[in-house]
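Intended use. Records such as the Heme A synthase entry shown here are meant for training and evaluating sequence-to-structure methods. They are not intended to support clinical decisions.
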Amino acid sequence: MRTTISQIPVEYRHIAGFTLLVTYIVMLLGAYTSAIGAGLSCPDWPTCYGTWVPFLQPEIIANSPYSALQIFAEWAHRGLAMTAGVLIVGTTLGAWVTHRNTPIVKWSATAALALLPLQVILGGLTVTEDLQPIIVTTHLGVAILILLCLLTTCLVAYLRR
C-alpha cells in the first residue's frame, strides 16, 4: 500500500523500518543511561521528580544529586520509549491492514505489541524497585524480543514488497 506525504511515497515497509530504528535507539539510550549511572536519576515513575518535563523547573536540576546530563538521559529514554510504543501500535495496525495475506508480518508485529505492556511495567519496576538486577535484565531481555519481532516484521515486509 502506498500513500504520499508531501509527494514522498511512504510504504508500510518504511514505517516498519522506522519503528525498528527508533526501538533500537531506545535500547542504546537505555544502555547509555545505565552506563553513566543514571538509572535512578528520575526517582519516580512515570514522571520525573513529579513532573513530565523536569527541565522547566531549574530547582529540580539544581537540587538533584544527579547531573543534568544524567537526568536528561533517563528522561529522554522514557520519552523516546513512549514514542517507540506509539510507533509499535501503528506498525501493528498497519500490518493488519496492508499485509492481510502475510501472516508472518501480522503476527510478528502483533507479538511486539503484545510484549509492549510487559516492557512498560518492567521499565517502571526498574525505577520503583531500585534497579534490581533481575528486573533490569528482564527489561533488556523483553526489549530484545520486541526488537527481534520488529526485525522480522521489517525484513519480511521488505522482501514481500
